[in-house]
């Protein structure tokens, strides 16, 4: 199956769940992530502010911002810029997708990032990830040399095989539902 077809299939599956169901389905995924050594040992973590069709992150961004340096991506043109999350008051709708993004100083110390939690359309058991097709995460993942990369998805997004090419970056771990 090609990337376009897999994106279509997963979109149909996502549409079968309400936002409330997806929020509920996200909780055990975060509990599992919080139990990993990757997460426990991380001091600087790149998370994401979830869209309605992704594993819900809002509560967890707020929860961990007091204990870790939590970074969030901001879409600027063709790249993701990183900024530190400093509370709900630091967020404003982004230009590209209307997703809430932190304002403030650009974060550029990529070697200080210990963990990156990456959303995706689909993942497989080899750590391969299918994104939305713009390559935002792949670009930033290639610039982070120390950070562990953890994909997170609902069970229906964990598939037998994700089509990959030379631009795709493999995850160190994928946390997925049943």
Task: List the SSEs and their pairings.
Layout: H1 3-14, H2 19-34, H3 37-41, E1 44-46, H4 58-64, E2 69-76, E3 79-84, E4 91-93, E5 100-102, E6 106-107, E7 115-118, E8 122-124, E9 129-130, H5 136-143, E10 148-153, E11 158-159, E12 173-176
Parallel strand pairs: 1-2, 1-7, 7-10, 8-11, 10-12
Antiparallel strand pairs: 2-3, 3-6, 4-5, 8-9
GO biological process, one term: folic acid-containing compound biosynthetic process
Binding site for ATP: 3-7, 129-137
Family: Belongs to the 5-formyltetrahydrofolate cyclo-ligase family.
What's the quick description here?
By secondary structure, the protein is of the alpha/beta class.
Outline the structure in words:
The chain has one domain (3-109, 147-176): 3-Layer(aba) Sandwich (Rossmann fold). By secondary structure, the protein is α/β, with parallel strands linked by helices. It is globular, with a radius of gyration of 15 Å. It has helices at 3-14, 19-34, 37-41, 58-64, 136-143, and strands at residues 44-46, 69-76, 79-84, 91-93, 100-102, 106-107, 115-118, 122-124, 129-130, 148-153, 158-159, 173-176. The chain contains 5 helices and 12 strands. The strands form 3 sheets. Strands 6-3-2-1-7-10-12 form a 7-stranded mixed sheet, sandwiched between helices. It has a 3-stranded mixed sheet with strand order 9-8-11, with helices on one face. The relative contact order is 0.19. It holds the Pfam family 5-FTHF_cyc-lig. Keywords: ATP-binding, Ligase, Magnesium, Metal-binding, Nucleotide-binding.
| Strand arrangement across the biggest beta sheet | 6-3-2-1-7-10-12
The whole-angstrom Rg is 15 Å
Coarse structural class: alpha/beta
CATH class label = Alpha Beta
Fourth-level CATH superfamily = NagB/RpiA/CoA transferase-like
CATH topology: Rossmann fold
Tell me how many strands there are: 12
Largest sheet report: 7 strands, mixed
**Apparent shape:** globular
The average pLDDT is 94
User: Can you write the helix and strand succession as a string?
Assistant: HHHEHEEEEEEEEHEEE
């Amino acid at each position: 199956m090609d990337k376009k077809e897999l994106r279509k299939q997963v979109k149909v599956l996502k549409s079968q769940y309400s936002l409330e169901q997806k929020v509920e389905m996200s909780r055990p995924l975060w509990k599992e992530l919080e139990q990993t050594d990757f997460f426990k040992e991380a001091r600087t973590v790149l998370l994401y502010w979830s869209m309605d069709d992704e594993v819900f992150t809002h509560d967890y961004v707020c929860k961990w911002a007091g204990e870790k340096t939590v970074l969030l991506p901001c879409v600027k043109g063709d790249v993701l810029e990183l900024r530190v999350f400093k509370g709900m008051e630091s967020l404003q709708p982004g230009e590209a997708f209307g997703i809430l993004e932190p304002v403030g100083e650009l974060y550029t110390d990529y070697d200080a990032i210990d963990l990156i939690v990456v959303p995706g359309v689909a993942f497989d058991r080899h750590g391969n990830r299918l994104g939305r097709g713009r390559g935002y995460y792949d670009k930033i993942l290639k610039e982070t040399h120390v950070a562990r990369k953890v994909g997170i998805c609902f069970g229906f997004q964990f598939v037998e095989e994700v089509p990959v090419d030379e631009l795709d970056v493999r995850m160190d771990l994928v946390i997925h539902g049943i």
